[in-house]
Every structure is written in structure tokens, then in C-alpha cells.
Specification:
Layout (H helix, E strand, L loop, with lengths): L12 H10 L8 H9 L4 E4 L6 H6 L1 H5 L3 E4 L3 H13 L4 E4 L5 H12 L5 E4 L1 H5 L3 H7 L11 E4 L14 H4 L3 H5 L4 E6 L4 H11 L5 E4 L7 E7 L3 H11 L4 E5 L3 H13 L4 E4 L5 H12 L5 E4 L12 E6 L6 H8 L9 E7 L2 H17 L7 H15 L4 H8 L19 E3 L3 H19 L5 H8 L5 H4 L17 H13 L4 E3 L4 E3 L2 H7 L8 E3 L16 H21 L3 H4 L2 H10 L4 H5 L6 H22 L21 H12 L3 H8 L3 H15 L10 H14 L5 H7 L5 H13 L4
Parallel strand pairs: 1-6, 1-7, 2-4, 2-5, 3-4, 5-6, 8-13, 9-11, 9-12, 10-11, 12-13
Antiparallel strand pairs: 14-17, 15-16
Helix pairs in contact: 16-17, 19-20, 19-23, 20-22, 24-26, 24-28, 29-31, 30-31, 31-34, 32-33, 32-34
The structure holds adenosine-5'-diphosphate and zinc ion.
Length: 744
């Protein structure tokens, strides 16, 4: 849907090709720069987060200049999905790797020898194999040139030791530069660290590389860090909240994944465990069922993800702390790749950090390396723990971790900004009781004890280990009898995170420090936190929110998509993304022309299955009594059919006070376009007499008369009519006001 702020442009050959083939009317940030570099034969390093749209950067250039691009990718399992998806767009692409069938190889060779293929995906092994490069040097291209002139290296961080996925065969890609000195090389990665970037440029021998680094923030992800109290129950609750949608749950160990998946199955959820200990067949089957939308919940170790491309993963749960912020970003990055809202929940317990430390130590020991080899891992883990225990906006903390400033005071999309944490009443007194118990036990027995033991004592446990030591005689015995064990465990870890309690000695027993005594003397306050159930409608995205009926249309479209995907043996998301289906459900086009206006509907897909989707939409409209071609008259308003959200309620209050747009942007941290949309909504809803706080009288009159001349369905013609730079925000205000008075 054309957005009023970024007018549709189909003038340039790139924009034209992207619109025709993919049905996208705008390019994402840095895509046009990356495409331009490729078309002009310049080297580039493109760093965009997962879901940022890297593939288009190497898929579009061959359509513009007819030169074949050779894409090196380590992810064989994704190559087939990619070529299948491209085929649906009538885009000739081939893949060459070890998992190809003979028939596939034959077709690929034929397309290449006839100079038809625009894109060749190849694994590094194949590329570096005997004779392959010689053959590439002689290949005839669609443009008529001979030999390859352009390489794209996907997942380029695999070339670096400092990346999280080093692959030795990637090192040998350095020979590309020597073998094809004429060719340009564009490298792509989602890994942002400075060191990895420098390594990629050096290893590949990039020349004057244009380095394009995108914004690392993923505004469509809602991040939550919740104290872990009861893992299985908490995960089950989240999965239930997301029923019918894809969720990935990450655990530290294989055993954890098995146990948690089983617990979920006991609760009636179709969940499957996934880890490196399963047979390749089992893993392939799970991956496949997940991608084909026959399985929605996978409980996995980090082994799951690299080969997974389900763009509509709506939720990623970390049942335990990830070992670094990089890993966290990578794993949460698998949510919401279609750009729609998705949720990432981290169930945090400080105990996990201890567990990782022991795992690091053990693996160092087994590998026979000195203990200080773990220093880097420990440092990364500390950062992760600080992130989880901290109370800084998660979007801000992540952006800053990746070296980017986050400009908004409130993201409206994390537990901190949505204010979802309750401070437990009487926190300081609770802390004093726990700390006193640590003190008393130490006085009584002359040594420290672990968290489990201390908690047993304050809860008045009659366990043998408590009684035999006489710990039922200390004054703090049974002092917190009514507090559940898991809650106390969470409190102890929060006290450790807050630095008012420590671990000590070989057995990492609990120990007091100066800060502990300050708390016990009442000189220092402590805030213990407890998660409140998240508000269902959190986050504030410019996203189409469907009504209940529209959601049924969406579901009907989804099953049609699955049917078509099955017929063609491709994953559903390559037919159409969820974003496209949602827009179809909201607009409900009745003609091919109307359908082609929907984002993600390119010419080839419209021709292949437009009719079936249109029939499905017509049938659903009939059945549900919905009008078709809805919301197309005013695309400027369509994305804001969002229901009343907490964020919106707040902006409405501000507008009632007469706050200006910039002030609201500054105070709420919402995007300018969001706030200006809210303002228009508010004006239409409440029809204020006076809108002079947002647009001066003279401008109002000019815009109003232009609007009356050219109509009010679209903002762009009004602006063109005005023939100047009147901001869209102001035009929007006037149009909303005229509408609220019954015009338009
Ligand atoms: P990455 O490889 O960077 O993780 P992808 O290339 O898989 O990201 O793109 C993520 C999603 O964004 C895909 O569903 C893709 O179709 C979509 N996309 C890419 N570019 C655009 C665009 N210009 N407009 C709309 N959607 C886009
Ligand atoms: Zn935030």
C-alpha cells in the first residue's frame, strides 16, 4: 500500500523491476545504495539485521543490467526455498550444491549454458571444487558478457574467527579476488561488530568497499525480560497466548529441550524438541514441518535456526539466558522477519550465568586449554547478564551494544517502556530477611551455604540437611514460609544482580558484602521485581490490525496459501508473506488491478494465482457479509485502522491538551508518522473546532481549497496541487478535519 509519506516511485529501472517482480513499491533503508553499488560494479559490505532485506540487494541488480550474480551461501537448506520463491516471481535462478538432484543439476546447467539464469546460488564447497572456477570464467551471461563479473557473499561473517559462526572453507574465498580481478564483490552479513567487519573486508580483499551499515534496531520486536519463577508453566502460558502462531523456544541443553517439549505435549501443545543430538533425518523432518506450517512450536538448542526460514515466527522464548548479546540478537532476530509485530521473551534467572560458567570451564578443561582462554566468553556472558538484569529500555540497550545511538526516550515495545514490572511491596524488608538468614547461618555454622539451602531455611523446611545442622534453630527459620520457593529463588538472584549479595569460594556459596549490611541496617533500599501479565495489545506498530471477521478472511487465505504451497512443493511463505495476506484481508480486492496494488503481489504471482486468491476473498466476503475493496479509497488512513492501544490513548490525551506533534514525538518516542497518524485519527474521532495548534490559518485555507479541487482520497495529489513543500503532517491534519466536518 503506498504510504503517504514515501510516495510510490516507479521511474528508476531498479524501482520498476522491484515493483514488477516483487510487488514492493518502496525499497528498505540501504537497499537502493547496495543495489546501486552492485550495478555500478563497486565492492561493498552490506550489514543489515536479520529480516532487513539483504537478499533483494543481490537479487535485483541482475534484472537491471542483465549480468549474472553468483551468490555464495553456506545455507544449502535455504537455497532451494530461495530459488523456488524466485521461480514463483518468474525470476530465473539456479542453485548448485551437494543436495541437488541430478535432474535439478541438469536444468541448472541448461539454464546457465543458454545464458538464461540471472542468479546462481552456490555453496563454498562447490565453488572451490575442482574446475568450477575455470568453468565460471567461461560462462556466457544473459547480458552477453563472458565470465562472471559479480559475486555476492552471503553470511560473510563466516569468514571471520571473531564471528559467531566461523567456517574454515569461507577463508578460501579469498582466492575469488585473484581469480576474478575484474569482478566486483558484495559481502552481506547481519553481524555488526567492528572487528568482524574489518576482517571481512581484509579477507575478501574488498577494494574501496562501500560499507553500508543499517539500523540494528528491530522496531517490530517487543522485548520482554521476565524473572523465571516456574519455567514450564511460564513457557506454556506464552505458547498458549500465541496459539496457532509459530514460536521457537530456546534452551541451553539438549536434555532441557526434551523435557520442556514433553511438558508442553502433556499440556496438549504440539511441540517438538530439536538439537544436534538428533539424527539428520529427524532434524530435517522437524525443520520441514515447521517451515511448512504443520508444526508451530519447536523447543531447541541454538542448533535450530540457521537453516530455518519461516518469516512469520511470531514469538521467540528464551527459557534460559543466552550466552552473549550477539547470540540473543541472532536468536530473537528469527522472530518477525516479515516485519510484522513479534514478541521475544527472555525468562531470566541469574542461575543460568553460573551454569554457563561451569559449561565454559568444563569445555576448556576438556579441550585442554588454559582457563584464561575463557575470559572472552565470560565477558560476553557478563554483558548479557547485565542486559537482562538491567532496567534500561531493551531497544536502546541493544542498539547501543551494537554501537548505534537510540534516539527515542520510550520505545513502546519492551517490558521496561511498557512498564510491565511491578516492584514487590515490602521489597527491602524481604531482602533484609533473606540477607539476615545468610548472616545467621554463617554465624551458626561458620561457613556459607548455597541459595537452595538458605531458601529452605527461610521457608521452614524440615529436610534432613536443615535439621541435622540445627538450622531449624536459627532465628530466621521459617520467616518467609508463605513465599513460594521459585519466587524466593528469583529474589536471591535479583539481590545478586543488584550487588547486595555475593557468591564466594569454590562452592560459590552466598556471602554478604558491605552493601548487604547497608540493606540490613535500613540504609539502602532494594526493589525486587515481579512480572505483571503483559498487556495483550502492547507495542505500537504501523501495522494493519484485523477485525475478527477480517481475521477469518486471513485464515481462509492462509489455508489457500498452504494448499498452493503443497501443490508446488514449496514452503508457504514463498507464495505470499503474512504481511501480504493481512493486507489482502483488510482490503479484500475484487479485481486483479486492485490486487496488484497490494504490497508483495508482483506480476508473475498475480498471473499464477491471483484468480484463486480473488475467488477465495470473494467467497469469504460473501460468507461473512464483508464489503470488498475496502479501505482502498483512503490508503493514507488504512494502516491506522489499529484499535485503541494504550499508546494511542496517551497521545490522544496530549492532543486534547493541544500538544504539538514534535512535542508528542519527543515525549513518547513514537515515530513522527505514527504520531501524525494518531493526530489525524483523533481529529476525525473528536472533531475539534480549532486545529490551529497543528496548522496555521493560511496553510489550512490553501490545503482545504486544494483538497476540494483534487479530492481527499490521497494526500499526494493535494501536495502536488499546492506545488510546494507543505509537510504531509499538515495536509493530513486539514484533510482529517474536513472529513470530521463531513466533507470528503
Ligand atoms: P535478510 O536476508 O536480511 O534476513 P530477507 O532478504 O529475507 O532478509 O528479507 C526479509 C523479508 O523482507 C522478506 O519477506 C522480504 O520479502 C521482505 N522485503 C525485502 N525487501 C522489501 C521491500 N523493499 N519491501 C517490502 N518487503 C521487503
Ligand atoms: Zn523500551
Amino acid at each position: 500500500m503506498p504510504s503517504p509519506v514515501e510516495p510510490t516511485s516507479t521511474q528508476t529501472p531498479v524501482a520498476e523491476a522491484v515493483h514488477r517482480v516483487w510487488g514492493f513499491s518502496t525499497l528498505r533503508p540501504l537497499q537502493s545504495e547496495a543495489i546501486a553499488a552492485a550495478v555500478e560494479g563497486r565492492d561493498a559490505l552490506v550489514v543489515l539485521p536479520t529480516g532487513g532485506g539483504k537478499s533483494l540487494c543481490y537479487q535485483a541488480p541482475p534484472l537491471v543490467d542483465g549480468d549474472l550474480t553468483v551468490v555464495v551461501s553456506p545455507l544449502i537448506s535455504l537455497m532451494k526455498d530461495q530459488t523456488d520463491g524466485l521461480a514463483l516471481n518468474d525470476y530465473p535462478a539456479v542453485a548448485l550444491h551437494s543436495a541437488c538432484t541430478d535432474a535439478e543439476l541438469a536444468t541448472a546447467r541448461e539454464m546457465l549454458s543458454e545464458g538464461r539464469a540471472r542468479l546462481m546460488l552456490v555453496s563454498p564447497e562447490r565453488l572451490l571444487g575442482a574446475g568450477f572456477m575455470d568453468w565460471l570464467g567461461r560462462i556466457a551471461q544473459p547480458s552477453g558478457r563472458v565470465g562472471v563479473r559479480r559475486f555476492a557473499i552471503d553470511e560473510a561473517h563466516c569468514i571471520s574467527h571473531w564471528g559467531h559462526d566461523f567456517r574454515p572453507e569461507y577463508r578460501r574465498l579469498a582466492t575469488l579476488r585473484e581469480r576474478f580481478p575484474e569482478a566486483s564483490i558484495q559481502a552481506f552479513t547481519a553481524t555488526a561488530t567492528e572487528r568482524v567487519r574489518a576482517d571481512i573486508v581484509a579477507q575478501l580483499g574488498l577494494r574501496d568497499a562501500e560499507v553500508l551499515v543499517g539500523t540494528f534496531d528491530r522496531p517490530n520486536l517487543v522485548y520482554r525480560v521476565v524473572p523465571r519463577v516456574d519455567r514450564d508453566a511460564q513457557v506454556a502460558e506464552i505458547v498458549a497466548r500465541r496459539a496457532g502462531e509459530a514460536t521457537i523456544v530456546y534452551c541451553i541443553s539438549r536434555a532441557d529441550t526434551e523435557a520442556l517439549a514433553e511438558d508442553l505435549r502433556d499440556r496438549g501443545v504440539n511441540a517438538r524438541a530439536y538439537h544436534a543430538g538428533l539424527s539428520p533425518d529427524q532434524r530435517r523432518q522437524t525443520q520441514e514441518e515447521f517451515t511448512r506450517e504443520r508444526l508451530d512450536v519447536v523447543v531447541a538448542t541454538v542448533a535450530f535456526g540457521m537453516g530455518i526460514d519461516r518469516s512469520n515466527v511470531r514469538c521467540v522464548v528464551h527459557a534460559a539466558l543466552p550466552k552473549s548479546i550477539e547470540a540473543y540478537q541472532q536468536e530473537t532476530g528469527r522472530a518477525g522477519r516479515d516485519g510484522l509485530e513479534a514478541e521475544c521473551v527472555l525468562l531470566y534467572s541469574g542461575a543460568d550465568a553460573e551454569r554457563w560458567r561451569r559449561l565454559f570451564e568444563r569445555s576448556a578443561e576438556e579441550a585442554g586449554v588454559p582457563p584464561d582462554a575463557n575470559a572472552a566468553q565470560f565477558a560476553l556472558l557478563d554483558e548479557m547478564q547485565r542486559f537482562a538484569a538491567g532496567m534500561v529500555c531493551r531497544h536502546k540497550a541493544l542498539s547501543e551494544h551494537f554501537g548505534q545511538a537510540y534516539p527515542f526516550p520510550n520505545c513502546n515495545a519492551c517490558d521496561v517502556c511498557l512498564d510491565e514490572m511491578d516492584v514487590v511491596e515490602g521489597s527491602t524488608v524481604l531482602a533484609q530477611k533473606l540477607l539476615s538468614c545468610v548472616a545467621r547461618l554463617h554465624q551458626h555454622s561458620g561457613c556459607g551455604f548455597g541459595a537452595a539451602h538458605v531458601i529452605g531455611v527461610v521457608r521452614g523446611s524440615r529436610a534432613e540437611r536443615v535439621i541435622s545442622r540445627g538450622h531449624d534453630q536459627v532465628s530466621t527459620f521459617g520467616l518467609l514460609r508463605d513465599v513460594p520457593q521459585a519466587t524466593l529463588t528469583s529474589y536471591v538472584h535479583q539481590l545478586l544482580d543488584a550487588g547486595v549479595l555475593e557468591r564466594d569460594g569454590e562452592y560459590r556459596t552466598l556471602a554478604l558484602n558491605a552493601a548487604s549490611y547497608e540493606v540490613m541496617r535500613g540504609e539502602r533500599e532494594v526493589s525486587l521485581k515481579r512480572a505483571r501479565a503483559p498487556v495483550a495489545e502492547s507495542g505500537e506498530r504501523e501495522e494493519i490490525v484485523l477485525s475478527a471477521e477480517e481475521h477469518r478472511v486471513f485464515e481462509a487465505l492462509r489455508s489457500l496459501r498452504r494448499e498452493i504451497a503443497d501443490e508446488r512443493g514449496v514452503p508457504p511463505y514463498v507464495v505470499f508473506s503474512d504481511a501480504t495476506l493481512r493486507e489482502l484481508a483488510a482490503i479484500r480486492p475484487s479485481t486483479p488491478e486492485a490486487m496488484s496494488g497490494v504490497r508483495g503481489v508482483g506480476a508473475a504471482k498475480l498471473a499464477s494465482f491471483g484468480e484463486r486468491f480473488l475467488a477465495c476473498i470473494a467467497a469469504s466476503c460473501e460468507e461473512l457479509g464483508l464489503e470488498s475493496d475496502a479501505n482502498v479509497v483512503a490508503p493514507a488512513r488504512a494502516p491506522k485502522r489499529a484499535k485503541m492501544t494504550p499508546g494511542k490513548r496517551k497521545t490522544f490525551e496530549r492532543f486534547r491538551r493541544g500538544d504539538r506533534i514534535v512535542e508528542v514525538v519527543r515525549e513518547t518516542g513514537l515515530a513522527l508518522s505514527t504520531v501524525s497518524g494518531h493526530l489525524a485519527d483523533w481529529i476525525e474521532a473528536e472533531s475539534p473546532d480549532d486545529v490551529s495548534a497543528w496548522v496555521d490559518g493560511a496553510t489550512y485555507e490553501r490545503v482545504a481549497s486544494a483538497a476540494r479541487e483534487v479530492g481527499m482520497e490521497f494526500l499526494r495529489p493535494i501536495r502536488d496541487r499546492l506545488g510546494d513543500e507543505t509537510p504531509y503532517e499538515e495536509i493530513r491534519v486539514v484533510v482529517a478535519h474536513l472529513r470530521s466536518k463531513g466533507e470528503g
